[in-house]
Design goal:
The protein is built from seven helices and 15 strands. By secondary structure, it is an alpha+beta fold. The chain has two domains: 138 residues, Fructose-1,6-Bisphosphatase, Chain A, domain 1 (2-Layer Sandwich); 103 residues, D-Maltodextrin-Binding Protein, domain 2 (3-Layer(aba) Sandwich), CATH 3.40.190.80.
């Protein structure tokens, strides 16, 4: 694949696929949802599988040789130089409960690093796009991270799974930051939270356990908007602890122990 013309083609393919999946999400918004599996703190919908299949089909028309690593399954050899990383509906629980806060996330990675990122929120009709070496755009307009430099002025998104270990590690930090920051938000969609950091709507976003498909696109959006995306490997395949911020807050958040 030759850059940058090929990255533009990949971006166009990802945008087309994201919009198609977003249209399906929107069309099924008020329809009954078929639940494939339900756990204590998570839900998997039939629509997740359907949207990933739609995205894969769309991407394969333009790039049939590139494998797919997705939340709903893997196609091809994802250890290849290039791979698509997909979350067809990031924020499934929100979506299942009728909360219009969910998005499609598509990234193209080269050597394990994202070089194209697309996040589409079909409910607000907001499309974030970027590729390597280029600015982040929201519906075609360049966006940047915020200039907030003090925790007391910051809007911070915070997320955590509900395992006993995670609660023990996260709740003290949540309690501390909720008193120090302007506001804490737990929003239920990592992709949108990262897009909001890239757009300056949020100043930082912290999550102790997150999957690659949740952050592959959003991490590039943040970095290309002037921010920082910091990760630490976590137990499990394609799992991380992460902090995304505007480049001025991570050290001041005092979360080193949280990301272990």
């Amino acid at each position: 694949m030759k850059l940058n013309a090929s990255l533009l083609s990949a971006l166009a393919a990802a945008v087309k696929a994201a919009r198609a999946a977003g249209q399906v999400m929107h069309a099924n918004w008020h329809k009954p949802k078929h639940v494939n599996s339900s756990e204590a703190h998570d839900i998997k919908l039939e629509l997740d599988v359907r949207c990933q299949a739609l995205i894969e089909k769309s991407l394969s028309r333009a790039f049939p040789q590139i494998p797919v690593l997705g939340e709903e399954g893997i196609t091809g050899d994802v250890t290849a130089e290039y791979r698509w990383v997909i979350d067809p509906i990031d924020g499934t629980v929100n979506y299942a409960f009728g909360i219009p806060h969910a998005a499609v996330s598509i990234a193209l990675q080269q050597g394990g690093k994202s070089v194209v990122g697309v996040i589409y929120d079909p409910f607000a009709d907001e499309l974030w796009t970027t590729f390597r070496g280029q600015p982040t755009r929201l519906n075609g307009r360049v966006v940047r991270v915020s200039g907030t430099s003090q925790v007391k002025d910051a809007m911070i998104a915070f997320g955590f799974s509900k395992s006993q270990d995670n609660l023990v590690k996260c709740l003290p930090h949540l309690n501390r930051l909720s008193r120090r920051a302007r506001k804490i938000r737990i929003m239920g969609s990592a992709a949108i939270e990262l897009a909001y950091v890239a757009s300056g709507r949020l100043d930082a976003y912290v999550e102790r356990r997150i999957n690659l498909w949740d952050v592959a696109a959003g991490s590039l959006l943040v970095e290309n908007a002037g921010g920082e995306f910091h990760t630490v490997p976590a137990p499990g395949k394609f799992r991380y602890a992460m902090c995304a911020d505007n480049g001025q807050l991570r050290q001041k958040l005092q979360i080193v122990s949280l990301l272990k």
